[in-house]
Amino acid sequence: MASRRWLATLAVLAGLAPFLVVLAREFEISQREWRAAQQDVAIASHARALFQQGARAEAIAAIEARLREDPDDADLRSLLGAWRQRENDLAGARRELERVLARHPSHVGAYNNLGLVAEQEGRSEEARHCWEEAIRLAPGHTKAHENLGNLELREGHWAAAVAQLQSAAQVDPASANVRARLGVALLKSGDVSQARNELTRALELDPEQPIARRNLAALEAQPAEP
Questions:
Q1: Which of 47, 133, 149, 181 has the smallest CB count inside 10 Å?
Q2: Per residue in 99-134, pLDDT tens?
Q3: Is 14 exposed, middle or buried (0-12, 13-18, 19+ CB in 10 A)?
Q4: Domain 142-226: which CATH class?
């Protein structure tokens, strides 16, 4: 009886063998992916520190070296595109970001960064499309709302600017820059009282915020209505 139970157990284990092999392989792959992700985080953190310290060429070189090992890393390539845009290498930035979106068409950060590139190139409609797509994919994306709001403000679309900047302020209420530009948009749309509130709030968050200081000073200098 015992021998039959032992044989039955062996049969079960034999049947499970292929599954166990697959499970072991998947575990090995997941471990490898986890280690790669940890390495990416460390490299990106180090590169960001270099970029903020002014060692921008060294920071870009670190990201490029990692991308040679893993060319399909969408987050690092999007970061590289953003840095090229900040260095005014618009052609290089566009190349990196379009490569990301070709492989990862739902990458919100790449859409937001490509919008910045398009705007700097004078392609406002493309910029608007990029930010609208980023918002469609991630409705709470603060930067996309903020960037689109700033574009609408520059183009004189006051109501649209207010709507986008209010959305950005709801997600990031502690942003003095968003509050300041929202104050300007409200001022342009004729809502002076609410504009004053937003500009005041911006200065509470950042007493040196230049847009808020300038516009609030202009409001205070206006003569009171009789």
A1: 133
A2: 999 999 999 999 999 999 999 999 999 999 999 999
A3: exposed
A4: mainly alpha
Residues 6+ apart with CB under 8 A from 74: 100, 103, 104, 107, 110
Q: What is the DSSP string of 97-138?
A: HHHHHHH-TT-HHHHHHHHHHHHHTT-HHHHHHHHHHHHHH-
How far apart CA 51 and CA 96 sit, in angstroms, is 18
The type of residue at 163 is A
Q: In this structure, are residues 97 and 81 in contact, taking their beta carbons and an 8 Å threshold?
A: yes
The structure tokens listed for 42 are 């460390």
3-state secondary structure of 28: helix
CATH of 55-138 given 3.40.710.10, 1.10.3860.10, 1.20.1730.10, 1.25.40.10: 1.25.40.10
SS3 percent helix, strand, coil of the chain, rounded to 5, is 80, 0, 20
pLDDT in tens, 185-213: 999 999 999 999 999 999 999 999 999 99
